[in-house]
Amino acid sequence: MEKEMDIKILKSSGERAIFSLDKLRKSLKHSGADHNLVEQIVGRVKDELYDGISTNEIYNRAYALLKKTNRSLLQNIN
Who has the most CB within 10 Å: 14, 15, 37, 72? Predict the structure, then answer.
């Protein structure tokens, strides 16, 4: 388990919470991404975080990267 970051995020309920890398990883793994892809996306998203970012914005950034990567992988297969 990795040490939590000191980034406070804004949940959809309006509550503020500490950002959790583990929660982001679990969400990406649940979507079917393999370990290497999860770590690449977590690294990219982590670099773009700032205090007050919403969970919705984090989700949008992470899944946009996942979608872009999956599209590239599919094009390489064809």
Answer: 37
